[in-house]
Each structure stands twice: as C-alpha cells, then as structure tokens.
Amino acid sequence: MAAGNTPENRSSQYTLQNDESSTSAARSYDDQGPAVKEEPLVVERVPWSVIAQEFTEIWGRHDPQDPQPEHTEVIGINGSGKTLWMCKAVQERMLSRHTACIILQSKPADETIMQLGWPIVTNGDVKRALKERWCVYWPLTNATGNERKRYQADMFKRLLDALWRPNANTIVVLDDVGYIQGLHTSRGEPLNPDIEMYLREGRSSGITCLLVKQRPQGAKREMHSETYWTIAFAPKDEDDQERFAQLFGNRKQFQPIFAQMNSEKHEFLIKYHRSGLAVISWIDTPLRPLARPKPNVKSRS
Description:
CATH topology: Rossmann fold
Order of helices and strands: HEEHEHEHEHEHEHHEHEHHEE
CATH class: Alpha Beta
Radius of gyration: 20 Å
Oligomer: single chain
Number of helices: 11
Number of strands: 11
C-alpha cells in the first residue's frame, strides 16, 4: 500500500494469514528446476501493538465463514515474558470478540496475572468461574508437597469436567501445562488424558487451548501437533535454541533467528502454521486492568 509507515498504517503491511514469503527461504533455480541454493531466512521485527489486532481477528478465524478454534502454545523460560503475552492476548480477545476465557493457574504467586484485574477463584468454585466468564481459576491451599498437588488436581479436574460441554466457546489457558499434565487427583486419576482430550477434541465444542510452558522438551506430543500458533521467547542457550527452532519447522533456518533475538527486550517469535508466516515481536504497551464485558454478552466467532 502507498500509505506511510505510521503505527496506524503499518499493521496492513504485515499479514499473519496470507503471505508466506518471510518463512520461505529465498531460492535460485537452474534449468533443471530444483532449488540449488537456500539463502538465510529473514524475519521482520514488528511491535505487538502493530499486529495485535490482526492476530486477534485471525486467531480461530482462518476461514471467517467457518470459524474453528486454533490451539496455541507459548514457550519461554522463567522471566521471559510469556505470561505477559498470554494476558495481553486473552485481554484483547475479550475486548474484540467477547470470547470467554478461564486461566488455570498453578503457581503459588504471579504478579503479572494479578495485573490483568480479572476475578480470581481460589476455592475451586466452578459455578462462579463459569458465571464470571473471564477469570483466573487459582486453587490455593496451605498444603505442601504431594497433598498440594492432589488438591490442585482435584480442583482442575472439576473445572475441566464442567467445561466439557457442547458450544463451550471458551479459551482455556493452562499455565504451566507441563506441571498440570503431570498431576494426579486424590483418586489417583492422571490429568493428562483430560488435557489430551481437550487438545484432540475440544475444537468441536468451541474450546481453544492456550498452552504455556517453559521448554518444549517433556511436553506431550499433542501439545505441538495440535497447535496452529507457536510463540517462543528468546531461549537461554544454544541447546534451547535448537529445540525451540525444531518447533518452527526447518531447524537450520530458525536457529539463527533465535540466536539474534533480544531477551532483555523480551522478544518472541510468533508463527502461524497455516500460512507459514513468522514475525519477531515484543510487548510495547503496558498491561492494565480493563473493564470486562457484561457476562451475558454474546461472543463473536
């Protein structure tokens, strides 16, 4: 387009949906047809404020005539900024499309989650969580060790069972999914089969899973195979760079991209696997509590 490069206009210069050029290596061809050369991958750097609205509109709406939930994985070491990105993403989805969201929180404390300003359900009250539509389901207990884990598992199991219904139309955030997957209830039931069911079959009920994890290793296969969006923050070292790069396709192409990312700026790489497009971005606006829509407002697919 001919418009200038102002923040208001720049969003139309980047598309996460249709343009595959930035994730396809530039190639030269000889008369025989096959590629004979691959040039280094070039990925644009774009602040999140420029592409956030586009992401919100595309997420789960690859075909606007037939919207389908798209599971998303967010990976980054402690302090990388993954929780901030998650909060911004679900807050923007709430404002733009009124999509209900429940965050399953397993950490003992998280200041970023508190900045979201959503109601926090600490006593396992499932009815209240469903009624609020936008909330943090954060079962707290004075218990420690295995007793604490069993209590969390019982509460999470109760919520997951209640959410599993036709036309749920809800974003379910699992933070930290690796920890939650490994929990067992007081009856000895593992939560992993429930998480796998949500990933494999949840889309048919309008359930979008947003999976937050520190590292790709140790995650169940479904976490990677069932997701359409991958967001990864700057890895800690070369070993992590290699593992992170594998999630994005061509390891040799993406590993140098991770090597150049700025961890102090909390840069992340976001890729939409339907289009193949990838962009380096960073959160450039603060997270502030925003008014939630009325509980009875209808979501927009």
